[in-house]
Every structure is written in C-alpha cells, then in structure tokens.
Amino acid sequence: MSKPGIGQLIAGAGGVLLIVSLFLPWADVQGVSQTGWEFSTMADVFFLIAGLVAIGAAITGGRSSFFRPDLSMNAATDLLGVVATLLLAWLIVFDFPANADPEIGAYLALIAAIAIMGGAGDYSVLRRGSRADAASAGEARQAP
Q1: CA gap 7, 61 in Å, rounded
Q2: What does each of the 144 residues of the chain score in pLDDT, given as a tens digit?
Q3: DSSP label at 100?
Q4: Would you put residue 42 in left (φ > 0), alpha (ψ -120 to 50) or beta?
Q5: Which residues are CB-neighbours of 65 under 8 A, at least 6 positions away?
Q6: Residue 50 CB: number of other CB atoms within 10 A?
Q7: Are 82 and 110 contacting, i.e. CB atoms less than 8 angstroms apart?
Q8: pTM, to two decimals
C-alpha cells in the first residue's frame, strides 16, 4: 500500500458522501419523501459500489490492482465516478419522474460523484507534452 495523495483523499471523501446520500431524501413524491434506496431500483447498488471502491482507493493509495493486474484501484474509481456522474446528471436533469421533486440527497450524490471523478482522475498526462509536441520542438531547434 502506498500513501494516498490528495486526489485519492478527495475521491474517498466523495465515496463516503455518496454512501451517506443514499440514506438522505432524494425525492418528494406527492408529499412522501423517499431515500436513495427507496427511489431507485438498481442504481443505488451501483452508487454503493462506486462509493466503496472510492473509499478503497483512498485507503490503499489507489495503487492496488482491482481484479486485474493492469487495472489499478484508482483507474476503477475514476471509471465508476465518471459513470455515476453521468447517471446522476441525466437522472436529475432529464429523467426525474414528473410527479416527484428532487431533494437534497440527489444533489449531494451528484456532488459526491463529481468529487470521486475529479479526485481519482489522472491529470499527469495534461502536465506532460505529447510526443508530437516534443518532436516539433526538436525540429524547431535544429532549423537554422
């Protein structure tokens, strides 16, 4: 296990918030409040798994393999965070039932999914230049 970075800690905090949000009110259906567990049929299990994997990435530092040696815990967390963010954004914006009003739990779940996605993302590729940039810079130095 390696020491977790700030990104893994943010993803872990997002995982905790995502799991907690499942117990909060997600929808008000005709005056009756429903939690995340009551509101969705299968997505709640996916959100639980995404939260647990994010917490696991924070504990292990994201370096441990996840069922396959070439897939790190950090990569799995990032993938689950992206899918959870897209699923929650779609649900809140386009697919919320007509007779229900979104409540705080759904919005906190979206914030948590964004934190998981952002914390687990590998942004080191943005800091390095591409090989094409390096090649063109080398050609520019060689030109008289």
Answers
A1: 9
A2: 567 788 889 999 999 999 999 999 999 888 888 888 988 778 999 999 999 999 988 988 766 665 666 677 888 899 999 999 999 999 999 888 888 888 999 999 999 999 999 998 876 666 665 555 555 555 555 555
A3: E
A4: alpha
A5: 71, 72, 73
A6: 30
A7: no
A8: 0.80
